[in-house]
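SAMPLE LOG
Freezer: B-3
Tube label: C17
Construct: single chain, 335 aa
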Amino acid sequence: MREKARQELAGMRFGLFYHYLDGIGAGETREQTAARWNARVDSFDVSALARQLHELKVPYFFLTIGQCTGLYCAPNETFDRIMGQEVSFCAKRDLISDLSDALAVYGIKLGVYLPHCPATDPTTAAAFGFTEEQLKNGPTFVRNEPLQRKWEACIADWSRRFGRKVFAWWIDGVGVNTASMFSITEPNYDSFTRAIRTGNPDALVALNGGIYRSEELRDVSPKAQLNADEDFTAGEVDIMMFADGINWEGKRMMNRKALNGEVLHMLSYLGQWWGAPHTQGPRLNDRLAAGITEYVNDMGGVVTWDLPFMPDGTIGEEFVEQVRFISERVRRNEQ
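STRUCTURE (predicted):
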């Protein structure tokens, strides 16, 4: 079944992505932050976004459950139990399930984004047991088995909640967590992906090692070299790679010989930066954005474009027109 899902992803050609994030407010009480976050999540108009994506012929969409801010857009009893706080930083609304249901009306698939470990804000770090070294330098290159087990339990909780409503998971920060992720013994990549697939054994998984795809990470340990369970390349690409003439093969990003069955996938952003405000406008003109998409499609790959969004979760008009241009070019090539 996962092989069929891989083939379906490869055939979709392009999709969209939101970095739907907020932060813990400076000087706010926990109650104030939670109230503000819940109000924002509640304002997301999933039906309106679904209609836009359908009209633009976008076959899949990714949304962050949460990132490094410590705020998450779906409930998680395991996370709350570990935190031991009466006021949760997980939204009361299950935005992931609500959005998936709205997208399913049009046959659009939903993927999700999570980091390799929870946020390092003081409260979360204390509850999950970050080491002194991790607190000082960030959660980099330090094996912390209890922390990893707790985070895997949280992921399994979300996975059970979402089930088959989520078709793919994109996991960030793996390049700085090789000591845990690619260990010979668990917790490691095996236990992490097993947690992801708790609710959907056919869920697709990509691990992001930064601007280099995970093939680079497989050089760091025997476990990394033996594990070929990833389904699609994380494919994070920034603007400098475009300026370098898209020399991805030189960086092994797009080396099809090293894919080990994974779908060739690229992720970049249409705004000025990841999750940039919609008011800043596109960084690429329409022809270049479409051309990059076609370039990857011609190699058998698929492109995901991160883009800004309006306060109600819909796509702003300037970006609607750019996505429409990309979509029309892609669909014309299919004929």
